[in-house]
Design a protein that fits this description.
Layout (H helix, E strand, L loop, with lengths): L7 E6 L7 H14 L4 E6 L1 H5 L6 H5 L2 H11 L6 E5 L4 H10 L5 H6 L1 H10 L7 H4 L1 H11 L4 E4 L4 H17 L9 E4 L28 H10 L19 H9 L3 H13 L4 H27 L2 H30 L6
Parallel strand pairs: 1-2, 2-3, 4-5
This protein binds tryptophan (TRP).
The site of tryptophan has 12 residues, from strand 1 and helix 9.
Length: about 325
């Protein structure tokens, strides 16, 4: 693909904690693969994270650098991928407020992701307005960067749909289209379970393994992993489905054949949980050690990481400003030009 037609890819993370293996399997790995092949932007979505953390802004602000460290430690290269901090790009807020007029409250209330999140957070009718409207802010992120591809998990598909709805509505009100529609790039990996096997991996559920986890934390997490409650004796046949250890091997053991053999052995009986866990632990320790070392090295020079964020944010801001400038001109909001 020539450089003029190559895709612009945007993804984002809410900085409410350091990133973990669920993020790695679900999206960070894909971003590494895209790096250098597309024009890639990573947005640290602190403004979006504030929509349900307004009472505790430090929870968000203290994690911006942590997320940046995670990106850099896994090999995101700021020369190939632009890392930007959402709140430091006022044009994103400006575009959000303009786009807000192209969506109704009832449409926002029908967004299935928002509905589910409202339920999870127990908001009932006491929903922060910013939270209900965060799909508009996310649409503004995507539209401002003129992203053509947005890698997402299944749960984010309604956001893409709502973004394109807003883009079409806006374009229909101006003389010539200004904003571009985007396509979702649906991740093929299934969601990594938490170590308890119950829900998805999440820091707030306490079932996550952070990318910067210490060797002892990794060992403890693997030992605590849910396997098969009926697999009591080594000789018992065991269940692979719903077994967290095998879900992790599927995600992180590149030797697929070896994993298949282990599964067959486990199903037949005669393979101890402790033996499979030992294999998984070796794999994870080997994978996480260089990430942890790089993270520690980078964390020792905060100023350098902040400089990377500032440069990325400046670059991203230029792109957002050019889009928002075009939007305002198209609307006639350009009295002094
Ligand atoms: N909502 C996304 C999440 O929770 C984060 C996000 C913010 C995002 N802005 C974005 C993702 C723009 C893709 C594109 O993970």
């Amino acid at each position: 693909m020539s450089s003029t037609t190559r895709s612009t890819v945007l993804t984002g993370d809410r900085p409410t904690g350091p990133l973990h293996l669920g993020h790695y399997a679900g999206s960070l790995k894909a971003r590494l693969e895209l790096q250098g092949r597309v024009e890639q932007y990573l947005l640290i979505a602190d403004a979006q994270a504030l929509t349900d953390n307004a009472g505790d802004p430090a929870r968000v602000t203290s994690n911006v650098l942590e997320v940046a460290l995670d990106y850099l430690a896994i090999g995101i290269d700021p020369r190939l991928t632009t890392i930007a901090v959402q709140s430091q790009i006022p044009e994103l807020a400006e575009l959000t407020s303009l786009l807000m007029n192209y969506v109704t409250v009832s449409r926002l209330e029908r967004n299935p992701t928002i509905k589910e999140e409202i339920r999870q957070r127990g908001y009932e009718r006491d929903i922060p307005a910013g939270f209900l409207a965060y799909p508009v802010s996310q649409a503004a992120d995507i539209a401002a960067f003129r992203a053509t591809l947005v890698p997402v998990g299944e749960d984010q598909l309604p956001m893409i749909e709502q973004t394109n709805e807003l883009v079409r509505r806006f374009n229909a009100t101006v003389a010539a289209p200004v904003l571009v529609e985007c396509a979702a790039m649906l991740s093929t990996v299934s969601r990594l379970p938490g170590i308890d096997g119950k829900a998805k991996m999440s820091k707030s559920l306490g079932n996550a393994i952070a990318l910067g986890a210490s060797p002892v934390e990794v060992r403890k997490a693997v030992q605590a992993m849910y396997t098969d409650a009926q697999h009591l004796k080594v000789s018992d046949p065991g269940l692979v489905e719903g077994n967290v250890v095998f879900a992790f091997l599927d995600a992180f053991e590149p030797d697929v054949e070896k994993v298949e053999q282990l599964k067959a052995h486990y199903r037949r009986g005669g393979l101890a949980d402790s033996a499979v866990k030992r294999l998984l632990e070796d794999r994870l320790q080997g994978m996480l050690a260089p990430i942890r070392e790089e993270r520690q090295r980078l964390a020792a020079d905060r100023a350098a990481v902040l400089a990377v964020l500032r440069q990325g944010t400046d670059r991203a801001r230029e792109r957002a400003a050019s889009t928002v400038g075009a939007v305002k001109r198209a609307m006639g909001l350009s009295y002094f030009a």
